[in-house]
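Hello Y.,

Per our agreement to keep a running log of every chain we model this quarter, I'm adding this entry. I've kept the format consistent with earlier entries: sequence first, then predicted structure.
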Amino acid sequence: MDINKIGRYKFFLQYLVGIGFAPDQKGIGQMIGYNNPSAFSQVINGKKQMPKDFTAKLKRLYPDLNEAWLESGEGKMLLTENGGQNFFGDINGGDNNFSGRDMTVNPPCTLDSILIKYSRKSPLNESSQRRHKPRHAKPKSRWIGS
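Predicted structure for the entry above:
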């Protein structure tokens, strides 16, 4: 794949969103200090000059980024094959602000979170509703008041 420098920046941002590192491009901009999403977007799209420390900020945000690839296209995008993530321990050194990996803002995906998310989107069908009826509900009285 032969892409220009702006294309590599966009590709890297799409990668970060794709792996769940950030919810979207705006989130990445906020992580590196852009409070105005439009300003970040203009830099990424080449409409504004890229600040000299822009690449360094992305590298601090995601240390496995290969700066040579980002700047010139040489080598691979990541320095390691697995993206430098270690799921067997604390990846943020105990500091949620370390390299932008705030797990309280972007928690890892779990099966429970997926089930909760999708169970809220679709109502239970009739047979499921009967099976999941609360057991503490009072039965309706059959007596008509006097």
